[in-house]
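Page 37, continued from 36.
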């Protein structure tokens, strides 16, 4: 065997999957808190631009009474306290997957609790992720539109320029994604810090002019508003939900900043600033009912209006950036978990693994956002499309949390039901309250979420059927080794690495190489790449080596679902275990399958064709696994599915 190939000096024991998360040093606590202000809270922090205005807009302006204003502000404040603070900041942030949060991390936790084959955890996780993808399109559209609509308060003649300016900003924002956000992110925290402090200051100034608005700190006015207005109150509740639409980001971005920095930033800055601002908007409307048309901007004195518009626009761009980055992370996790085909993933930072750019996702998001802006043309109209996707995601998140609380935390069944049903009743209430918007625009996120659900379901289902057929038509590896020991094919120097999804069966690329080239390398390595249900895998637990015969070795590489698989780097790390590896004397053999629809595939014909179309969009294995192109040999074959 060549000295430069992969060698196995001694048996290497299998390692358990990494059970530790990536913690954060306490010395960086406040830096992480400031960073979270700029990334995590962008969406929920810009809600004051449109939430109260939209909620009161459901009532006739002439019919709005002081009790209505206090009641709606009360509903908003208590939605922030119950949904964001109690549910997400206090409860859900305890349900972390090795330090990571988000709907797919929670899905992995629930699957671990119930068993990998459970259908309910899969369906809930995919549904939540699909609805989040719809939110990722709506947030940039409504955020930038609502900020620029402040120009109408400066000069009504500027109204025709709002839409073109929104389109330009969004195009520039999505175009800049390929450059990465590491450099810009350094400014996010300070800008949002200033934005929140100004929000709080403006709010407190106006509260002093109408102290009765402080009654909104009690839940009684909010409950009274719903009881008094009946069905109309329920409609308003759907708009109140706009105030908490960024709550999912608190949970999803936990792995980037840590639980405690996010909790501290929320409790000591963001929540007080939001409460003060909503109280101030309510106080302004109590003293000047005409201000209901745009209470956020009308709180500012005339000389400060233009600077506030510029600051709010910057904040909405930051909010949009956070959602776009979240969409990239979600897509990357979905790819690793087998819910989407392999897409090209570009790393935009050499130091931060989470800084990624997915060109296809970016293009789809840009087209979708521009279509929404041109279709709805105003933040008020777009608000009807907002909320329902986030409410649906919150319902699925709470439902998945039940299995974690019951099975992993080992709560008694009655306790888990009581806790989760308390939150679920509120989530379902908001979801139902948003359903009235379906005909007025709510169909958009439902359609987007439904389409994404079908894509994920199709890819998962088709991949499973394809793997079953591949395994059924393959020769067991143990049998092939025995056959080769008897037939003794021509051996050539060097090492051949064959990638395989099923280490018990002979890879198709190995069989084609034997059939057409009629040779076998001195050293053959079967390489199986696995994605674990943990976010990351420690380097010490990255690989497992098993000798199948003197000439055949099985290497299993493990990656977390938030990691990008880099095979050469992982193989090079094996040197620490006493292995020798030189990539320049090693060839990587991959099978490239051309799929054709089969008469009886196990899926409807339309799903067959969709699966095949999705497979054509997949990035090549060398690109996805970061293999050097001059060391890769691809052997093609046709296969019916």
């Amino acid at each position: 065997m060549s000295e430069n190939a992969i060698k196995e000096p001694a048996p290497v024991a299998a390692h358990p999957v990494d059970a530790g998360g990536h913690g954060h040093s306490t010395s960086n606590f406040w830096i992480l808190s400031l960073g979270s202000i700029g990334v995590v809270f962008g969406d929920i922090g810009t809600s004051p631009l449109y939430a109260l205005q939209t909620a009161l807009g459901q009532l006739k302006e002439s019919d709005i009474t002081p009790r209505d204003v206090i009641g709606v502000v009360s509903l908003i404040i208590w939605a922030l306290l119950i949904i964001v603070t109690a549910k997400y900041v206090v409860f859900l942030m305890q349900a972390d997957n090795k330090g990571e949060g988000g709907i797919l991390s929670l899905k992995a936790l629930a699957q671990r609790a119930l068993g990998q084959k459970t259908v309910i955890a899969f369906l809930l996780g995919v549904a939540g992720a699909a609805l989040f993808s719809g939110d990722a399109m709506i947030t940039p559209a409504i955020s930038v539109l609502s900020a620029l609509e402040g120009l109408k308060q400066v000069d009504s003649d500027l109204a025709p320029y709002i839409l073109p300016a929104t389109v330009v900003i969004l195009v520039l924002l999505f175009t800049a994604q390929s450059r990465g956000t590491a450099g810009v992110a350094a400014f996010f925290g300070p800008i949002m810090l200033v934005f929140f402090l100004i929000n709080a200051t403006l709010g407190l100034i106006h509260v002093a002019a109408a102290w009765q608005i402080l009654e909104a700190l009690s839940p009684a006015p909010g409950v009274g508003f719903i009881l008094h207005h009946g069905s109309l109150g329920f409609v308003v509740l759907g708009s109140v939900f706009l105030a908490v639409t960024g709550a999912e980001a608190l949970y999803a971005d936990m792995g980037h900043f840590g639980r405690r920095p996010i909790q501290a930033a929320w409790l000591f800055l963001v929540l007080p600033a939001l409460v003060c601002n909503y109280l101030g908007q309510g106080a302004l409307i109590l003293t000047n009912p005409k201000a209901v048309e745009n209470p956020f901007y009308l709180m500012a004195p005339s000389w400060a209006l233009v600077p506030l518009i510029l600051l709010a626009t910057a904040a909405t761009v930051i909010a949009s950036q956070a959602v776009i980055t979240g969409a990239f992370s979600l897509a990357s996790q979905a790819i690793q978990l087998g819910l989407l085909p392999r897409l090209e993933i570009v790393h935009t930072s050499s130091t931060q693994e989470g800084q990624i750019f997915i060109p296809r996702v970016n293009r789809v998001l840009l087209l979708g956002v521009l279509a929404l802006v041109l279709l709805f043309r105003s933040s008020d109209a777009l608000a009807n499309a907002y909320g329902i996707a986030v409410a649906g995601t919150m319902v699925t998140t709470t439902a998945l949390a039940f299995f974690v609380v019951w099975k992993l935390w080992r709560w008694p069944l009655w306790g888990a039901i009581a806790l989760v049903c308390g939150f679920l009743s509120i989530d379902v209430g908001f979801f139902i309250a948003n359903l009235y918007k379906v005909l007025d625009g709510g169909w958009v996120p439902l359609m987007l979420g439904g389409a994404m659900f079908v894509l994920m379901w199709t890819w998962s289902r088709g991949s499973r059927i394809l793997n079953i057929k591949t395994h059924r038509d393959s020769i067991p590896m143990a049998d092939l080794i025995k056959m080769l020991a008897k037939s003794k094919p021509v051996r050539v120097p060097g090492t051949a690495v064959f990638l395989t999804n099923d280490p018990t069966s002979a890879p198709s690329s190995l069989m084609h190489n034997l059939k057409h080239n009629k040779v076998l390398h001195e050293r053959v390595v079967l390489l199986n790449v696995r994605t674990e249900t943990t976010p990351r895998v420690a380097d010490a637990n990255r690989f497992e080596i098993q000798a199948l015969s003197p000439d055949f070795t099985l290497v299993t590489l493990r990656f977390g679902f938030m990691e990008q698989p880099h095979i050469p780097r992982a193989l090079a790390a094996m040197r620490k275990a006493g292995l020798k590896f030189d990539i320049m004397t090693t060839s990587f053999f991959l099978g490239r399958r051309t799929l054709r629809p089969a008469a009886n595939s196990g899926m409807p014909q339309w799903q067959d064709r969709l699966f095949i179309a999705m497979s054509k969009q997949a990035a090549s294995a060398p690109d996805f696994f970061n293999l050097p192109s001059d060391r890769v040999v691809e052997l093609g074959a046709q296969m019916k599915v």
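The mean pLDDT is 83. Flag for discussion at group meeting. Residues 137 and 369 are 5 Å apart (CA to CA).
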